Amino acid sequence: MDAREISTQESIRNSVETAEYFRLRGKTRPLSTHQLTSQFRMLIEQILSESGFYAPEMAAVALKQAEGDIFEAVQYLRAQKNTIERKYESETIDTRHMFVERRISSAFREIPGGQILGPSRDYTQRLLEPHLATENMESIEEFVENTVPSEKCDLDPELTSLGKVADLLRKEGLMKGVEEDDRTLVDITRTPITFPAPRSARLQMLAKSQTGAILAIGYSGQRGFGGGHGTVGELRVGKAPVKVKDNHGRERSLGRIRTTEAEMITRMTAGRKGSLPHLAIGYGLCFGQNETKAISMGGLDRSMRKGNDEFPCQSQEFLMYHCEAEEAWGGIQSHKLPNYTAFESDLNLIRQAVARSEEKSHDVAESPTN
């Protein structure tokens, strides 16, 4: 190792120590992982979704280490995930057995089992609450003691077996399935993506996509750029059971994970003579309570099935690669790395072009006039 490499490594160490110093220089009380998972629940669960790794405590550590930079935190959690041995593959999760904390439908006023608003700020004005600046343990304890949210109520076994709104539409023959789509089951963490990709791969990629990215592209489809204005047939937030089979084929329960599921309904016109209009469904499922992402996924799932590259929301390759958090973040971050050689090459080419132009202009100016 030469002196220049040693100097570079020393500079990197100093840079990391400086970043850590900036995090701690205020000498404030350190944030515990419990504080982060409790009071920054939505942010932690977004990190879980974009990392594709359900580990709330580790997500809290990653967020703390990254000083709140969610992109950086996702990279830490993905790197951690890659160090862990995969011992089992879970059985298919049936969200009909989800313990429902929140369940709404924009398509119907009344649905079997009823609408459950649960934890949400949908019907509030987005105004700042100044009292949070002086919040203390006394005010927190008083609020908790005087409030009885749904999660403190006795568990109702009926809540774990609520039927699906989409099932009702299928029974009436109003909704078509997605049987015509490629239903091959692939694991994108072990199988390289090829295009056109099967629906299982597309949904996995969307589930790990950056929330803001699929929100933007999903909204472009809603505005008429190749998509459609779907309706939330059903949105669920709750804890779904995860089960695996051991080496002897016995089913084992690993517990429950909080997920958000969205089923978006779109009206389709008759495609050819003799066919009837019908309803089509788009599906979204992700870790944690991330309704924006699940709804965007549902719209984009439907848009990609149109198989058209004219618009971003319909192009599999454009959408899946550009919304992938790790790829997008890494590509942009690479601009901060040394590019001296490439830039010097560009400078030399431009300087040569300028020199040739000046030389030509000089020759024209000195040439005799007729």
Characteristics of this structure?
single chain; four-stranded antiparallel β-sheet; 13 helices; 370 residues; alpha+beta
Number of helices: 13
Strand tally is 4
Describe the sheet with the most strands. Answer: 4 strands, antiparallel
Summed up, the domain count is 2
Strand content: 5-15%
Radius of gyration: 27 Å
End-to-end gap: 67 Å
Q: Stretches where pLDDT falls below 50 for ≥5 residues?
A: 151-155
Q: How much helix is in the residues? A: 40-55%
Order of strands across the main sheet: 1-2-3-4
Principal-axes geometry comes out as: globular
Secondary-structure element order, as H and E?
HHHHHEHHHHEEEHHHH
Structural class: alpha+beta
Average pLDDT across residues? 87
Walkthrough of the structure:
The protein has 370 residues and is α+β, with helices and mostly antiparallel strands. It has two domains: 71 residues, no CATH class; 216 residues, no CATH class. It has 13 helices and four strands. A four-stranded antiparallel sheet has the order 1-2-3-4. A hairpin with a 5-residue loop joins strand 2 and strand 3. Helix 3 crosses helix 4, helix 3 packs across helix 5 and helix 8 runs antiparallel to helix 10. The protein is globular. About 1% of the residues have low confidence.
